[in-house]
Design a protein that fits this description.
Blueprint (H helix, E strand, L loop, with lengths): L7 E4 L7 H10 L3 E2 L8 H12 L4 H21 L4 E5 L7 H7 L5 E6 L2 H14 L4 E6 L17 E5 L9 H15 L4 E7 L4 H8 L5 H16 L9 E8 L4 E8 L3 E5 L2 E5 L4 E8 L3 H10 L3 E7 L5 E7 L4
Parallel strand pairs: 1-5, 2-12, 3-4, 3-6, 4-5, 6-7
Antiparallel strand pairs: 7-14, 8-9, 9-12, 10-11, 13-14
The structure holds N,N-dimethyl-L-histidine.
The site of N,N-dimethyl-L-histidine (AVI) has 11 residues, from strand 12.
Length: 323
């Protein structure tokens, strides 16, 4: 007999990522790109945790404070005895303030790609909240997957904090929100955090911090290529850069080649001119009206929005129609 407090663990993780194939295809395209999903190996995840603590990186602390202050209002908008689905739950810390404020939440489904980390975090949550039925689904939430059906709860409400939605391009963001709308079904809800457009200097500092942690996070992609794909490259020949592109309303992160150079990966060579860029990440910033329009395009109705006193960050509550 298992002494697990977890009601179920569903492993829907895709076959191993094709890291080599993705790197070769990204560096063969023009302009060159590398997918941001490869930031998050063990070192990258630790660097991201450090980014969240940086004085210049306001999103995490602003959203956390907003959630703490507004959790009772969020809970009353969401209602009683719901099922909460969290996409990309990580160490399952952020949702606790919501679960503590909700009226008798019935069940919680933790969704994340990192299998062992998910199992441990979901087990811990399940033993800390014995009144809630806790399920875990190991899945890549950027792709379609099935969520467990017929779990306890009067309504399904998705939770997607952290402004991770900003890392999707708008068409992908809309498709992803559309999949969430289908997961929660008629009468379902979505509580989602999204970073706001603001003074460019604030954005520039947040993504070009003075301690160089964001630079190390970005350059870690090249370390992974070197170590895991037996790449032959000089990491010191590249530097981090992040700019705000006002036309698209997004921060764009790049790795910039400091000289003319050739690198080899898996027996293939790639040439770089001095100043040539590899695009590694977008972080879209949304005004309230823009983000509510995105939600509507995905099948949601905008119900409520909460913002911090400086209007840096917003948390939105959306609902699907009653069907
Ligand atoms: C995960 N995501 C919301 C972060 C962001 O702000 O777009 C990733 C990040 N990249 C550099 N700093 C933080």
């Amino acid at each position: 007999m298992s002494d697990s407090a977890l009601a179920s663990f569903n492993d829907l993780s895709p076959a191993e990522d094709d890291f080599l194939g993705d790197v070769v295809s990204g560096l063969s395209s023009s302009p060159k790109t590398l997918p941001c999903k490869y930031f998050y190996n063990e070192r990258g995840s630790k660097l991201f945790d450090q980014i969240c603590e940086l004085p210049e990186y306001y999103p995490t602390r602003t959203e956390t404070a907003l959630m703490r202050v507004k959790a009772p209002e969020m809970a009353s908008a969401i209602g009683a005895e719901v099922l909460i689905l969290e996409y990309g739950c990580g160490s399952i810390e952020k949702v606790r303030v919501l679960l503590d404020a909700l009226d008798r939440p019935a069940s919680y489904v933790a969704i994340d790609i990192s299998r062992e980390h998910l199992r441990v975090a979901a087990e811990t949550l399940a033993s800390d909240y014995p009144a809630i039925q806790v399920h875990a689904v190991c899945a890549d939430f950027s792709q379609y997957f099935e969520v467990p059906s017929a779990l306890p709860g009067k309504r399904n409400v998705a939770f997607f904090p952290g402004s991770t939605i900003g890392n999707f391009e708008p068409a992908e963001a809309r498709a992803f929100l559309g999949r969430i709308a289908r997961h929660v079904g008629p009468g379902g809800g979505l509580l989602i955090g999204a970073d706001r457009k603001k003074d460019e200097a604030v954005l520039h500092a947040a993504y070009n911090d003075s301690a160089g942690v964001t630079a190390a996070f970005n350059l870690n992609l090249l370390s992974r290529v070197e170590e895991e794909l037996d790449g032959n490259l000089n990491i010191k020949g590249f530097e981090h850069d992040a700019i705000y592109n006002g036309v698209y309303g997004r921060v764009e992160m790049y790795l910039v080649s400091l000289c003319n150079q050739e690198i080899t990966i898996g027996g293939r060579s790639f040439s770089f001119g001095a100043g040539e860029r590899i695009h590694t990440e977008y972080s879209h910033k949304y005004d309230i009206e823009e983000f509510q329009a995105l939600g509507r395009a995905a099948g949601f109705e905008a119900k409520t929005v909460w913002s911090d006193p400086e209007d840096l960050f917003s948390v939105y509550y959306f609902e699907t129609g009653s069907g």
